[in-house]
Amino acid sequence: MFRAASRALSEALVLEARAALREADHGRASALCREAVQRAHDARSPALELGAERELGSCMLAAGQLEDAMATFRSFLALAKANDSAKDIVTAHLKLALCYHKRSDMAGTLGALRDARRAAEELKLPELLARAHLHLGEHFLNTSRPQYATTHLHQACELASETNKAEADRARALAGVAGGLELWPAVLAALVESGPDQPDALRRGRLLDLVAWKDRRAPFWPKDLTVSKAVLQSQSTVS
């Protein structure tokens, strides 16, 4: 009877915490979640305890309490591993990545996202694997490394195409941005390389080609345009 009552109370507290969070009452939401964690523990329900821990971390994150949120998500991760909760393991890594991102810790963000990707691959969770690839692509775009973003975004689009259309569309759009940014330095370098040694008319023509490519997505590369190997030398892929 006690466990059943504790279980019901934990579920009710989480619902109340979500309502408080929607009203931006972060302090009350966190307090309710802490109580929900304790009640779930009393009920000896790992699933409920995991859910309450996750909600508590989200409340702290929304309140800007990054250190507390990270500590809670680490506890959430440990609990998920102890209970072999595959989805929660990946979710914990993704939540930690978000905390690192909000702290402007780019190395920590990348490490947590890689952990999420590896866990999703090992645990065979394609929807969360797509999300990990999407966030990796976003991370590389945010840190001005589009050459590493494109592959992750294409993989996210492919994986999410059957499970989450919104995420697939987002990944597809960002992949287009990353591909353009990846090509852009080579395009500019090619124009600079060919410009000084070419007649003015040809240089103007190539600039007009560039404008047409930007405005109408017309084919840009002229057949006779050559670029030095140094400009187009590929960089090793960061996974």
TrEMBL record:
GO terms for biological process: cilium movement. It is found in: Cytoplasm. One of its GO terms (cellular component) is cytoplasm. This is Tetratricopeptide repeat protein 29. The keyword Cell division does not apply. Its main location: cytoplasm. The keyword Isomerase does not apply. Keywords: Cytoplasm, Repeat, TPR repeat. Axonemal protein which is implicated in axonemal and/or peri-axonemal structure assembly and regulates flagellum assembly and beating and therefore sperm motility. It comes from the Eukaryota.
